[in-house]
Amino acid sequence: GAVVSQHPSRVICKSGTSVKIECRSLDFQATTMFWYRQFPKQSLMLMATSNEGSKATYEQGVEKDKFLINHASLTLSTLTVTSAHPEDSSFYICSARDRRGGGYNEQFFGPGTRLTVL
Amino acid sequence: QKEVEQNSGPLSVPEGAIASLNCTYSDRGSQSFFWYRQYSGKSPELIMFIYSNGDKEDGRFTAQLNKASQYVSLLIRDSQPSDSATYLCAVKDQAGTALIFGKGTTLSVSS
Q: Rounded to a whole number, what is the distance in Å from the CA of A15 to chain B's nearest CA?
């Protein structure tokens, strides 16, 4: 149980295009999903917290107009990188929190999406 | 600003030895602490979590927490080459929502 998928796993795009990344909780409902970004040899940096049915909360320094987050259902959140540039190339990882809560590890990580912007 | 600090390493140990990974955190109000393992190109996978002072053991892994010193560690006994990875320490903030990650310590176990 507690499986989170991401699609696509890899994407290469041209500078200026937009890329959408999907994060799905496959066997549980997630009221909250988190989007992280990881540059090479760096740690995971939280970009935003996404709550189902409401606007995402962005961390300081993350442009909300550039990184559009939609959490329209209890099993799906999407991150759209608009007008991507080479500096947006990174490993994007989502995690989802089971709506049933409880415990100390209710966040489950997806496998990540490697974005390369040419 | 909340910070989680780890020595980036690399930490090199021979097969069968004990590997000791350390982490300090700045937010004294933090309540729960996590150790993740991350292989290159993969997302993190949870090894252990701990929330009470003292030791918590799970197989070859032991997590140690000292809230007064704001210090958490992970011991790996009988280290195996397959343990070679980056180990991320993460702390859940006071609000109990987001995880704050350290930069990770790279462990290399030689056979």
A: 23
